From TrEMBL:
Residues 1-23 are annotated as: Disordered. Keywords: Antibiotic resistance, ATP-binding, Nucleotide-binding, Transport. This is ATP-binding cassette domain-containing protein. The keyword ATP-binding applies. It is found in: Cell membrane. It is a peripheral membrane protein. It comes from Streptomyces violaceolatus.
């Protein structure tokens, strides 16, 4: 009788019912990364005089709270020193939080670092996880053994990464001889060999040319779509965010400043893109439709600013129809300027 009454309850399953417990379990399972009031404080000593040192505390992360669902691709951005790397180091278990609660796949990273290592992949920008003096393929073979990856799965993952990241000609090259862009591609492949459930990427397209960037972005999109890999991406290239992430979080001074869609970030910071136009000859400032405006003119080159939340297509088409063009390009706003404008808006409010 109790089961029937529960099923007919118009208010739906409550937290104390079997259905409510199941719904809560499903919601918890869907949340792959969870931070609740997380803090990280460092003790810093600096010299203030002869044989004198001053001790002070630096709060790198200050009451950070957010969740990331399984399979979600999230951009995690902010200026240098904002606390991004500190957050990722706590998520991987390298650093222990000074306060708050942190879980990845239900695991406390600092307490069960080895257990968590089999479920995560990490690419730390300028710091490689590859063996410096060994050929690239030897690093992959070592990871094959370290993570105890089944042979068939290892070969399948390696072949796929080598093909999509164009690593075939680099496999026998020592890592120290690779360019930054080549090594970044090698590091991304290394992070994916053991089928991680979550991937932390720090500037994954740094040092790559336009074609290579497109390939890496396509690879990451396919990875998320096919395998449901959760991705937390830190970058200074807003095009990485635009093409990969449906959600962006902005952190500054260890605090979460914004959490939402990229369009909303542009609106909050009133950021602008810049259209750089090269004309065949020097002309008066281009007459552009509002809200675009000319902000700089140097000979045949002109710079036009327009809202970052708007498409450049209409502006480009209008200029191309009326002016003799040689070349043009669109420059994205940098993260620092967007955040600076967000601060200015809040201070004035």
């Amino acid at each position: 009788m109790a089961r029937t009454a529960e099923a007919e309850d118009p208010a739906g399953p409550g937290p104390g019912t079997a259905a409510g417990a199941e719904a809560a379990a499903e919601a918890e399972a869907d949340t792959f990364i969870e931070l609740d009031g997380v803090e990280k404080v460092f003790d810093v000593r600096r010299k203030t005089g002869f044989l004198k040192r001053e001790r002070r505390q630096v709060r790198a992360v200050d009451g950070l709270s957010f969740t990331v669902s399984r399979g979600e691709m999230v951009g995690y951005i902010g200026p240098n020193g904002a606390g991004k790397s500190t957050t990722i180091k706590m998520l991987t278990g390298i650093l222990t939080p000074s306060g708050g609660r942190l879980r990845v796949a239900g695991i406390d990273p600092s307490r069960e670092r080895i257990r968590l290592a089999h479920r995560i992949g990490v690419v730390f920008g300028q710091r490689t996880t590859l063996w410096w003096d060994l050929p690239l393929i030897d690093s992959y073979r070592l990871m094959h053994r370290m993570y105890r990856i089944p042979d068939a799965r290892y070969r399948e993952n390696l072949d796929r990464c080598v093909e999509l990241l164009q690593l075939q000609e680099l496999l026998d090259v020592p890592v120290r001889q690779l360019s930054l862009g080549q090594r970044m591609r090698g590091d991304i492949a290394a992070a994916l060999l053991h089928d991680p459930e979550v991937l932390y990427l720090d500037e994954p397209t740094i040092g790559l040319d336009v074609v290579s960037k497109a390939k890496v972005r396509g690879f990451l999109r396919d990875l998320s779509a096919e395998r449901g890999t959760t991705v937390l991406l830190t970058t200074h290239d807003l095009q990485d965010i635009e093409q990969l992430c449906s959600r962006v979080m902005v952190i500054d001074h260890g605090r979460l400043m914004y959490d939402g869609r990229l369009e909303g970030l542009h609106e909050a910071g009133e950021s602008e893109r810049t259209l750089v136009v090269d004309l065949e000859r020097e002309l008066p400032p281009i007459e552009a439709p509002e809200p675009a405006r000319v902000v700089r003119v140097e000979g045949p080159r002109q710079w036009l600013a327009f809202p970052a939340s708007e498409s450049a297509a209409g502006l480009v088409a209008g200029i191309a129809a009326r002016y003799p063009l040689v070349d043009l390009s669109v420059r994205e706003p940098d993260i620092e300027s967007v955040i600076a404008k967000m601060y200015a808006e809040r201070a004035g409010a």
